[in-house]
Write a structure and sequence with these properties.
Layout lengths: L15 H32 L6 H28 L15 H13 L10 H17 L11 H9 L2 H21 L3 H17 L13 H8 L3 H8 L2 E4 L1 H9 L4 E6 L5 H16 L3 E7 L12 H12 L10 H7 L8 H4 L8 H18 L2 E3 L26 H4 L1 H8 L3 E5 H9 L10 H4 L9 E6 L10 H9 L11 E6 L3
Parallel strand pairs: 1-7, 2-3, 2-5, 3-4, 5-6
Antiparallel strand pairs: 6-7
Helix pairs in contact: 1-2, 6-11, 6-15, 7-11
Bound molecules: 6-O-phosphono-beta-D-fructofuranose and magnesium ion.
C-alpha cells in the first residue's frame, strides 16, 4: 500500500523528527551509556578485593563487554550527529534483521540512508533494534534492559495516582450488585475509565527529556475535576461510539496492543479489570508486549511480570508523608521541593485497596481471563512469530500480508485497543496526512479488519481525524499541540 503523502523525516527542520535526531536521541543514548557505566562501577567495586575465582573472572569479562558496549554506543551517537549512513544490523540470531537491512538498502538507494534523511518511523524503530543487536551479541548483557531501572524508578513515583485509583475501584466493588443493571451509571464510569487509560499514555519516558516530575504528576491526576479540565484537550472523541460498540458484545475477548510500562500499564489493567469485572461485554483480555527494549519505556514480558509483583510488594512504593511530617517540613529547605510538599496524601486503607485489586488481577492471570500474548517468562530477545511484528519497522497498513498470524488472531477480537503515540504513528504510517483525513482512510487496507480503538496523546507530528478548522486554528496558534503531549485523540473504527 502506498499512501498519497510522504513520510515525516528530519529534512524538515521545523518537525519533531528533526528535534528528535538533534536532541532527544542523543539524550536517550547518553542515558544508556550512564546505565552501563553504573552497572560496571558496582561490579568493579564489589569484585576489586577478591581473589581470582570464577565469579570474579566472569565479572571482569562483563566489565570488559560493558566498556565495549559504551564504545559502540558513543560511536553511534557521534555518527548520528554527523548525519552518517545507518549501519547494517549484524545477524545476531534474533528476529527482523533481514527486514531492517533490506529496507535500509532500499532507502540508501534513494539517498535516504542517513540519520538526517531516513523516514522518522523507520529510523526510530531501527535505532532500538540496532541497540538490541549490541546487547544481544554479548555473553553477559544479553538479557540486560538498559531502561529497566528508569522504568521502575518512575513507576515508584506514581504511587499517588495508583492509590487513588485503587480506592476508586474498591468503591466500585461495593456498588457492584447495583451496577450491573444501571446502564447509565456504567456508561459514566466507562468514560472515566477510558480517559484515565488515555492520559496514562502521557507518561512515556522517551518524553521525559523535556518534562518535569511535576508535569507528570499533573498529567497523572485522576480525579473527576482533573478529567473534566482535560476533556477539552481531546481533539476528537469517539467515546460514545466505543461504548455503543461494547454494548453490542457479550463475553467477548478484547486486545491491548500495549505501550508503556509503569503507570500506563497500570491504567491498562484498571480499564481491563473494569470491563471484565463490572460489565457483561468482555470476559477475556489479551495484552501484547514488545520482545526487546523499545522506545525507552514500552512493556516487555519481564516488565509485565514485574508489574504485578511490584504492585503486590508492601515496600515497592515509598511511604507517603503524613500531614504532620509535611507541616514539620514547612520552612525547611525540603519544603521547597515540590515533590515533597505535594506528597501523596495516602488514605490509610488505600494500600489494602491496591492489594485487593491486584490480587484479583493475579487471579485473572492465573485463570486466563487476563493473558499476555506470549509467556510472561519469555526472556528479552526471544523470537515469537506472533509478537515480533510489534518491533518491526512496518506500518500496520499491510498487517494482513506481513504478519498473517497476528492479523488472524486479532480478527476474532471484540476490540483491539492500540495504546499510545507510536502505535498511532504505525496505524497511520507516520505520513503527512492532512489533519482532517478520516481515520478510516489513514489506516489504509487495515480498515474494517477488526474493531480498532486508538488511545493516543499527541507526541508526533502526524494527526488525522481532526476537524479542519480546529486543526488550522491550533496550527496557527503557536502552541506545539501536535507533539507536546497535552492533546489527545480517541478514535474508533468498527469492523466492516
Ligand atoms: O520519539 C518518538 C516517539 O514515537 C514520539 O512520537 C513519542 O514521544 C514517543 O516516541 C513514544 O510515545 P509512546 O510511548 O506514546 O508510543
Ligand atoms: Mg512507548
Amino acid at each position: 500500500y502506498q499512501a498519497p503523502y510522504p513520510p515525516y523525516d528530519p529534512t524538515d527542520k521545523e518537525g519533531f523528527s528533526y528535534e528528535t535526531v538533534v536532541k532527544r536521541w542523543p539524550i536517550i543514548l547518553t542515558g544508556i551509556i550512564d546505565n552501563i557505566y553504573r552497572v560496571n562501577h558496582v561490579l568493579s567495586v564489589s569484585h576489586s578485593e577478591e581473589a581470582a575465582n570464577e565469579e570474579t573472572l566472569s565479572a571482569q569479562e562483563k566489565i570488559e563487554e560493558g566498556k565495549n558496549l559504551i564504545e559502540q554506543i558513543s560511536k553511534l551517537k557521534y555518527e548520528m550527529g554527523r548525519d552518517r549512513p545507518l549501519e547494517t544490523i549484524t545477524h545476531d540470531g534474533e528476529s527482523m534483521v533481514d527486514i531492517y537491512n533490506t529496507e535500509l538498502a532500499r532507502l540508501t538507494e534513494q539517498g535516504k540512508g542517513t540519520w538526517f534523511t531516513a523516514p522518522w518511523l523507520y529510523a526510530e524503530c531501527y535505532l532500538y533494534r540496532l541497540l538490541r543487536s549490541y546487547f544481544s551479541q554479548t555473553k553477559h548483557w544479553n538479557k540486560h534492559d538498559p531502561f529497566q531501572a528508569q522504568k521502575q524508578e518512575t513507576f515508584k513515583k506514581s504511587s499517588q495516582a495508583i492509590f487513588q485509583l485503587a480506592t476508586t475501584m474498591h468503591e466500585l466493588e461495593q456498588d457492584k450488585a447495583k451496577l450491573g443493571s444501571d446502564a447509565q451509571k456504567l456508561n459514566i464510569i466507562f468514560r472515566e475509565m477510558i480517559q484515565m487509560c488515555l492520559w496514562g499514555n502521557a507518561t512515556d519516558l522517551s518524553l521525559l527529556t523535556q518534562m518535569t516530575h511535576e508535569d507528570i504528576q499533573h498529567l497523572q491526576s485522576v480525579g473527576k475535576d482533573a478529567q473534566a479540565a482535560r476533556k477539552e484537550y481531546i481533539l476528537t472523541d469517539d467515546q460514545d461510539k466505543v461504548w455503543s460498540h461494547l454494548m453490542g458484545l457479550k463475553d467477548a475477548r478484547i486486545d491491548f496492543v500495549l505501550d508503556n510500562a509503569g503507570f500506563e500499564l497500570f491504567t491498562d489493567f484498571v480499564f481491563a479489570d473494569f470491563l471484565v469485572t463490572y460489565t457483561p461485554y468482555v470476559s477475556k483480555v489479551v495484552f501484547h508486549p514488545k520482545m526487546i527494549p523499545w522506545f525507552v519505556s514500552d512493556v516487555t514480558p519481564p516488565d509485565f511480570k514485574a508489574t504485578i509483583s511490584s504492585l503486590l510488594s508492601p515496600t515497592f512504593f515509598p511511604e507517603s508523608k503524613s500531614d504532620e511530617q509535611i507541616s514539620s517540613l514547612a520552612g525547611s529547605a525540603l519544603a521547597q521541593d515540590p515533590t515533597i510538599v505535594s506528597a501523596p496524601k495516602e488514605l490509610p486503607q488505600s494500600r489494602q485497596h491496591l492489594k485487593e485489586m491486584v490480587t484479583r488481577w493475579a487471579g485473572y492471570l492465573e485463570s486466563g481471563v487476563f493473558a499476555l500474548s506470549v509467556s510472561p517468562e519469555t526472556p528479552l530477545g526471544a523470537s515469537n512469530s506472533n509478537a515480533n511484528f510489534w518491533t518491526s519497522p512496518y506500518p500496520y497498513w499491510n498487517m494482513n500480508d506481513l504478519a498473517p498470524e497476528v492479523f488472524g488472531s486479532l480478527k476474532d477480537s471484540g476490540l483491539v485497543i492500540f495504546k499510545g503515540d507510536l502505535n498511532f504513528r504505525k496505524l497511520t504510517g507516520d505520513v503527512k496526512w492532512p489533519a482532517s483525513t478520516p481515520f478510516e482512510s489513514a489506516v489504509g487496507p487495515l480498515r474494517g479488519a477488526f474493531p480498532v480503538l486508538s488511545l493516543r496523546t499527541n507526541k508526533a507530528d502526524v494527526v488525522v481525524g481532526v476537524e479542519k478548522e480546529k486543526a488550522e486554528r491550533l496550527d496557527s496558534g503557536g502552541e506545539k499541540w501536535r507533539v507536546n503531549g497535552k492533546y489527545a485523540l480517541v478514535l474508533f473504527l468498527p469492523r466492516a
